[in-house]
Amino acid sequence: MSLTKSIEFSITPIGIIRSCYGEKFGIPRQPGLVKSATATLELSPPYNTPDAFRGLKAFSHVWIIFLFHQSIREQWKATVRPPRLGGNERVGVFASRSNFRPNPIGLSVVELKEVDGTILQLGGGDFLDQTPVLDIKPYLPYADCIPTALGAFADRAPDAKNRVNFSTEAEQSVQILENETRPALRQLVCDMLAYNPRPAYQTNDPDRIYGTRIFDLELQWRQVESMIHVISMDPMQR
Ligand code: SAH
Hints:
Blueprint: H1 3-6, E1 15-19, E2 38-43, E3 61-67, E4 79-80, E5 91-92, E6 105-116, E7 119-123, E8 132-138, H2 141-144, E9 163-166, H3 168-177, H4 185-194, E10 210-214, E11 217-224, E12 227-235
Parallel strand pairs: 9-12
Antiparallel strand pairs: 1-2, 1-8, 2-7, 3-6, 3-8, 4-5, 6-7, 10-11, 11-12
This protein binds S-adenosyl-L-homocysteine.
Residues 24, 27, 29-31, 68-71, 97, 99, 106-108, 126-128, 131 line the site of S-adenosyl-L-homocysteine.
């Protein structure tokens, strides 16, 4: 038996993320890009004890280690095509932050906005709604921030180059729908769509309608070059 086989073990999630992103499409490709993104982490028993969070409030940021639960595959591939390289060039899976990996584990550093008992309010996440969380660790600036680090093909944040406008209908909807349960809705839609969610292999098609889910809303837009036109934003049909 190989050494790696002998240390196989199972992991139980400690909690679940409730996120503003209801579908993978449109989620920014790293945390911290869309600062208006909100997420709540609810701990499950027996981890939902305040003792486990004693002292956490004093940290401004945390690492969230999570399961890419919608990217679990039987097979894995040694190479992937990062969107940052235009979606054509391949790099090794371990030279990428792809969600398709031998162990589908995600790692994101996010703002810790609030600790409400055993519920954490997080800002700027790149998590899909219902993401299972495996661990939480405080971000330690002296160890985790390396100003001289090299970022290879992703050395800088991608440009938020799209401009976003709203149809009259979408503008009316956002005024009504932005509330405590859907905070900063307009800002969120603008920030998210500014980072070109369209797959790299798709060419400009002004008639094509794109859609995704934000909170409990169905968002639809068209894209002409770097101009995004939000068509509608309506509560999902149940
Ligand atoms: N910071 C992350 C980046 C991963 S790639 C890391 O290195 O771990 C980011 C993409 O993961 C997002 O664009 C989103 O589409 C996807 N994603 C987020 N949560 C997911 C989940 N629970 N299952 C599958 N994919 C997810």
